[in-house]
Amino acid sequence: MTIQKAIFAGGCFWCMVKPFDRYDGVISVVSGYTGGDVENPSYELVCTNTTGHREAVEITFDDEKISYEELLSIFWRQIDPTDANGQFFDRGESYQTAIFTNSPEQYEKALHSKEELTASGKFSKPIQTVILPAKTFYPAEEGHQDYYLKNPAHYNRYAIGSGREAFKINNWGEDA
Questions:
Q1: Average pLDDT estimate for 51-74
Q2: What pairing do the DSSP bridges indicate for beta strands 130-133 and 3-9?
Q3: How far is CA 159 from CA 6, 32, 87, 88, 128, in A?
Q4: Backbone CA torsion sign across 96, 99, 102, 107
Q5: What pTM did the predictor assign?
Q6: Active site residue: 12, 29, 57, 66, which one?
Q7: Alpha carbon of 102 to those of 17, 68, 92, 132: distances in Å?
Q8: 47 is annotated as an active-site residue
């Protein structure tokens, strides 16, 4: 078993846990903040869009059971990669998409994945998701962890009401 970590910012972190949680080889998915320069930021502070942090998930995985490339594929199917200003109803820096890489190998794989998506012609607008070196990842407050399990009715209303679910189905089909 080889344990690795992947960090993806895909807008609201509540909506980024469930898609990864269901895969064999994914050990944990933690909601949190990364990319900024303020130590131990709070949800309230990150939402001011003044810290440089983005809401993100840190995925701990066994790369003998699920590859980083597979995680990248799952990530792309959860977001609108053409939106540079946030995701769906959530606007601002803290909701911008990014792939945070932990190694040169992850960077190369993320870049190749982004290039493949661009070349596919799936989207008529340019891909805006950035690839950045990982910075310190700060877990979010406990109330934000596993939100889809703790508050399923609110989570489902949010995922549908924000437009995320319709976007995923319209662009990736029912399996997104």
A1: 97
A2: unpaired
A3: 23, 18, 11, 10, 22
A4: negative
A5: 0.96
A6: 12
A7: 19, 11, 24, 9
A8: no
